[in-house]
């Protein structure tokens, strides 16, 4: 009985996907874990300047690969571990302290990006870059200037998580599945963010016309204000209680990664460089955008009420002012 050894040259080449996560702290490690659990990429590479930390995180994840969709995990303090990645997610940055605003973090984190991004772009020039580090809008704007990458190729995770928080709270109030709530937070990922109530809906029912009886009644102005406050401040509550937000942001980041790697053309409120969006430009802000394999394909000009437009413009002015403080 003869044995046949396949000729590698005749084997069909299989395109595999590689995700690089820069920063192996609470957010980076959790994001890598979430990506593995969901089978988002065939290779997950972790990078951190702390060699012992990144190698330990990678080893811990490697020991669980039997229980997730097929994948390999690698980790190193050498930037070469990110080589030829399809998606690079940057989570490295200064840690947010209790009571500290996201803007307070900007200076140290932008300085870090000046060291991180040039060698990253050198080893992974064709990757789509997703910035998760806070303050994400200012960091994304600075990172575009530092890296020289086109705006569709580098963008921030923006208000994907905030919009998830908004939808969760609306679903809770209205007694419906969160998957049937369509609502977005726009603007800054932070204190000046704007809930887009006028364009929101549950199923096919405009949110402002929702009018069930009993405990799941209409979203009055008072209810909407309470929800908006909770969305904007929930991160501070979590940081105060456990030191960092990591689970929901890891899942939100993985959702964006999947939209890119699967070329979904999904609509997600990511933070990108705006150019004459209702007259707003030269700033990175979150608005609903079409996300796929090449990054951002388009931003959607959704209908805005006068107060929503004013809020978005105010958010843009504040972020532009912060960027100028750091020379961008």
TrEMBL record:
Q: What is the predominant subcellular site recorded for this chain?
A: cytoplasm
Q: Which residue positions are annotated as catalytic?
A: 189
Catalysed reaction(s) here are:
(S)-lactate + NAD(+) = pyruvate + NADH + H(+)
Translocase keyword on record: no
What are its E.C. numbers? Answer: 1.1.1.27
Indicate the transmembrane segments per the record: none
This protein's pathway: Fermentation; pyruvate fermentation to lactate; (S)-lactate from pyruvate: step 1/1
Q: Where does NAD(+) bind?
A: 23-28, 48, 53, 93-94, 132-134, 157
**What are the Lactate/malate dehydrogenase C-terminal domain coordinates in residue numbering?**
159-322
Activity regulation as described: Allosterically activated by fructose 1,6-bisphosphate (FBP).
Q: What Gene3D superfamilies is this protein classified in?
A: Lactate dehydrogenase/glycoside hydrolase, family 4, C-terminal (3.90.110.10), NAD(P)-binding Rossmann-like Domain (3.40.50.720)
**One cellular-component annotation, GO:** cytoplasm
The record's note on quaternary structure and interaction partners says:
Homotetramer.
* Stated role: Catalyzes the conversion of lactate to pyruvate.
Its recorded name reads L-lactate dehydrogenase
The scientific name of the source species is Flavimobilis soli
